[in-house]
Amino acid sequence: MTTRSADHRAGVLGLGRVGGVPVGLHWSVAVIVAPLAWALAASVLPAEVPDASLGGRVLAGVAAAVVFVATIMAHELAHVLVARRLGIGVRRVTLWIVGGTSEMSGEPRSPGALAAVAAVGPLTSAALGLGIAAAGTLGGPPLLAASLGWLGAVNVLLAVFNLLPAAPLDGGRVLEALVWRVTGSRDSGRRAATAAGRVLGLLLIAAGLLFTLRGVVTGLWLAAMGWFLGASASAERAGGRLLGALAGRTAADAASSPDPLLQAGWSVAAVIALLPERPSREAAFPVVGLDGEPVAVVTLRDLTRVAPDRRATTRVRDVGRSLSADRIVAADTPLERVVPLGALPGTDLLAVVADHGRLTGVVSAAGVARLVELSDSGR
Description:
By secondary structure, the chain is an alpha/beta fold. It has two domains: 2-163, no CATH class; 251-377, CBS-domain, CATH 3.10.580. It contains twelve helices and 13 strands. A five-stranded mixed β-sheet has the order 1-5-4-3-2, with helices on one face. A four-stranded mixed β-sheet has the order 6-13-12-11. A hairpin with a 2-residue loop joins β2 and β3 (21-26). α2 packs antiparallel against α3, α2 (54-85) runs parallel beside α4 (142-162) and α5 (170-183) packs antiparallel against α6 (186-213). The longest helix is centred in the first third of the chain and has 32 residues, at 54-85. The radius of gyration is 25 Å and the shape is elongated. The chain starts with a strand and ends with a helix.
């Protein structure tokens, strides 16, 4: 599954980098691994290997569930490899409760590129599934053969499910590419895919609740998956609206003059006295050095954390947060690169626009929201 802007870093355990791309494991993966291992040990494997010991079944179940997570990772890394080959950046890969997400930092420039990145994931799962299932027929311990058979079947089912023509599934991306190709409009393709995603989500929720009422416990899982798909499709539609508003715009279009503009050497007490009356505790203000170059961002919360008796002697740059290189951009930088698609930056992620090293304006959530509103009102 590929996403444009999902941010699942909260509760994510970093596993390192693959090809320079951060890979993480969300805590919710345990929610699926444990039940899978138990289901295998308690029902699937006993039906296939009745004389197997409980300990052997539990060990095989845990191993199969862990390998299943690894096959999901392979699915996502296939997206990453093709995306990078086509010049599309990838922020991170995260394994999630309903599978995996590959978060792209760029957009495919053609329907063919979009379809290629999307289709490679299910094709990888299908190939893995068929290969694993074939390995299970080559002989060996009965528990191993049964586990491989299950893994193969689940990966093939995963491939089929991901090819359903509904966002955010890979099939939704393929549908988006097809509509884009036929109509010449990327937005039309996005609307079709996200609409299908919302419909699929509602159908899965309804089916899950129906199964639950009939005593089938797995219906709750089906309903949860439907909710996730529907919510993701709605979020993508909102992201598409933002993308349309940002198209052709630069950082200068959304920039506003910093008020007040804080000098790095000023004291915290002097800065607090300069701030507007009753600002939000999360409102962010840029800090510049002697040459006018942006060096930090500070919020009222940062300032008020300094003890009153130390404010006169503490410099504002010592309490501000340093600006990373990607938060300092030229005035002609496309807004699509400044603002993550699908989500407005929070005040904590203030983007500073610099020209020849000197601060000329700042891009805030309010500035981007204003552009979106003006774009909508002009339609």
